[in-house]
Amino acid sequence: MSHPNKRSSSTTTTSSSSSSLTSPPPMKKAKSHSQPDTKNGLHHHTHSDNDDDGRRAQPDNLSRKKAQPPQPGKKQFVIKPFKAKPAVPKNLEEETWEILKSAICAIFLKKPVSCVLEDLYQAVYNLCVHKMGGSLYQRIEKECERHIAAALQSLVGQSPDLVVFLTLVERCWQDLCAQILMIRDIALYLDRTYVKQTPNVRSLWDMGLQLFRKHLSLSSEVEHKIVTGLLRMIEKERLGEAVARTLLNHLSKMFIALGIYSESFEKPFLECSSEFYGTEGVKYMQQSDVPEYLKHVEKRLHEEHERCLLYLDASTRKPLVATAEKQLLERHISAILDKGFTMLMDGNRIEDLQRMYTLFLRVNALESLRQALSSYIRKTGQGMIMDEEKDKDMVSSLLEFKASLDTIWEESFFKNEAFCITIKDAFEYLINLRQNRPAELIAKFLDEKLRAGNKGTSEEELEGTLDKVLVLFRFIQGKDVFEAFYKKDLAKRLLLGKSASIDAEKSMISKLKTECGSQFTNKLEGMFKDIELSKEINESFRQSSQARTKLPSGIELSVHVLTSGYWPTYAPMDVRLPHELNVYQDIFKEFYLSKYSGRRLMWQNSLGHCVLKAEFPKGRKELAVSLFQTVVLMLFNDAEKLSFQDIKDSTSIEDKELRRTLQSLACGKVRVLQKFPKGRDVEDDDSFTFNDTFAAPLYRIKVNAIQMKETVEENTSTTERVFQDRQYQIDAAIVRIMKTRKLLSHTILITELFQQLRFPIKPADLKKRIESLIDREYLERDKNNPQVYNYLA
Amino acid sequence: MKVKILLFWWHAVAAWTWDAQDETCGICRMAFDGCCPDCKLPGDDCPLIWGACNHAFHLHCILKWVNSQTSQAHCPMCRREWQFKG
Asked: What's the predicted TM-score (pTM) here?
């Protein structure tokens, strides 16, 4: 409001000093700049700036007024004083007021004003100059009040149609605004002198508003009708009808101008909105599904926001939107989550979840959403983890689950830090829900991926998969179980030449190293070293004199020499080798021990594998087989038909292992042997012959898949070894702690152990180990306090 | 025609361990299959060494022992003068 005034005040100053002898100049200026105001009908002018100029211009104008016009002539021009002090005409005030009053009446009645406006201004000016401003002000106020009261009275009992009524009010308001402004313009001088100089007197514009307000509140029927009308119209709009927004805009501006917006309109409006959305929220929650509901809420909030931009005051936005949020969202948070969260998550509805997040953020309900997410992950994941029948797919389902959660986190939850932690926590909880088995399955999943024959996966894809699996690995508390199984599988891949890519293997090891430190991967790296070293040993063996002089020709031998500590421990497996194979082994052993003194070499025949050439009646084949299979097959070079017992006697292979071997040769996909009688399992009195009718499309045939397969015994022994190891680690940790502390209470010892040990463990297990150490006299209970242990050096 | 099986490629596997009379090192009391207390990895990284008296120790252990002796070093097991087995 102050800006245009300032600008106009400067123009006023210049014009007054430069031109115009007649009436004080600000009139036109004031009028011209106040014209646009009438259109809006809401300007409450304070003319502080203008007034200043008016006063400065005053003496200048006065002197011009009284001076005689210059006359050409011979007579000397003499200024004579007045004979008597000029008196103000007695009836000046009354007469002038009559003129003004009729003009004001005409303005209010929208009739042409009989006088020139400039004269009216002059009239006001004259009265003010003669110090009659006070009574003029009162007269004008009284006159205005009469008209304004009448105008408002005319609205009473008007059209029952609210829109029509509101339109009348709008017109009445705008007319009065224009009229008061007009009067203000005429009496501008009054506004600038009397009003300015007298405390507690309203400017004419404010006086007009005040009168309007007074009479509006006096006729409460009109006010009530306006408010109801507005509320009804807004409700109609909310229900989808088009309404006259300009009308709403003007009327809300009227309330603002009158200064009764918040009390008379906003308050009932917010109450009404609250009630409206309260009912709507309950109704819609029942009617529609959650995504629909959220969309609706979003739309509603947007509408309310727009409403404030379009026709309500900006100050209403906050409370209004808050009301809608409260009624539509806050009250239904838990219902929304209960009803729709799982459905949205299951359906991977990124967009709907994003909407939910954004809306919940508005009402500070993210914590509820986070909790829902947490319990969703736990519940959904539990099905994947706990169902033993789904073990085979556990890791891939977990990976898929995690990937979809990550996408939702990124796209729907805007990478909220707290949600990220929630997902992690929930996964950690999940994976450790079942002891050991998930760790084992993760190792096996990796084995599957790193094993040769995974065609169709590129190096990059493989890398990506490894990274993802590593995320799961991170959550595992018992990493030793993972290590044991991973090591067992890695050993097989390396020894049987089944690794898809040594680069990928090494990349996985370095990932594990970054994750768990070199302590964790030392031995795994040692395995790779052994493989490298073995290549060199084989090379020098081939060049050696022993090999050249003593070795019978025909068999190409290569040996993997393992450093025992690095590799999984293998139970020694008996087998009686054909004589020539023994010769080979002996010569190699002799060579090796001559090269590395102080060592013992033990053959791990269960891990040996061979390539055979087999002449079948229907063609020659190359067979990739295990050493055990080789030993069995070679028996048939000298015999037609052999019984199970024959084979067992000649090979000395352990019963179960032999049955497995025979089954792989006679009952699998590739049947090199024939079993009599036929059947899936090998029985004691079965007998075997070569399969003369053997035929296969390929030249090279693999029969040794059996070696890669994990047997039940292998699995149990791996698990048992982990547990055994844990016992040693517990013992070592107890001794280590006690050695430094000498004397320690049970509780502190247990706490320290929990800090040191990197696998899940129960206090009861620790107690057992402590007992065992007491038995072995590493520790003793204190004689005075059985809760305290002493270290026995 | 009789089927003939011919072995022509053999990938054998063997594991080596130290061939010492004792299970554990007389100095650090750790298993020979393991490593000395200063090492992390057994095997070539922490080798055994035999004295002329045929007693074996972790190389790192006996070196520490020998270096810590002011005058002549003796085998910690049999007190004979320590000499590395040639």
From this structure: 0.76
The count of residues in chain A is 793
Q: Report the first-to-last Cα separation within chain B, whole angstroms.
A: 60
Q: Which residue of B has its CA nearest to A617?
A: B1
CATH number assigned to the domain covering B23-85:
3.30.40.10
Asked if A560's CB is within 8 angstroms of B41's CB, the reply is no
For residues A610 and A580, is the Cβ–Cβ distance under 8 A? no
Reported as a pLDDT band with limits 50, 70 and 90, residue A68 is: low
* pLDDT digit string, tens, across residues A508-551: 999 999 988 888 898 899 999 999 999 999 999 988 888 788 87
Domains in chain A, number: 5
The span from the CA of A684 to the CA of A706, in Å, is 21
Same domain, A112 and A250: no
Q: Which of A484, A516, A548 is the last residue of a domain?
A: A516
Same domain, A228 and A194: no
- Indicate if A252 and A351 belong to the same structural domain: no
Question: How do the domains of chain B map onto residue ranges?
Answer: 23-85
- Whole-angstrom Cα distance, residue B18 to residue B39? 16
B18 close to A (CB below 8 A): yes
3-class secondary structure, A609: strand
Give one DSSP letter per residue of A704-761, joined into a string.
THHHHSPPHHHHHHHHHHHHHHHHHHHHHHHHHHHHHHSEEEHHHHHHHHHHH--S--
Mind telling me how many Å the CA of A606 is from chain B's nearest CA? 8
Same domain? For A231 and A195 the reply is no
Write down the ipTM of this complex.
Answer: 0.91
Q: Which residue of B has its CA nearest to A633?
A: B5
- A554 contacts B15? CB cut-off 8 A: no
> Are A387 and A467 contained in the same domain?
yes
Going from the C-alpha of A122 to that of each of A26, A96, A128, A184, A276, the distances in angstroms are: 11, 10, 10, 13, 57
Count interface pairs A-B at CB distance under 8 A: 150
Name the token pair of B39: 């090492």
| Closest residue to B7, CB basis, from A526, A592, A610 | A610
Which residues on A lie below 8 Å from B1 (Cβ)?
A: 615, 617
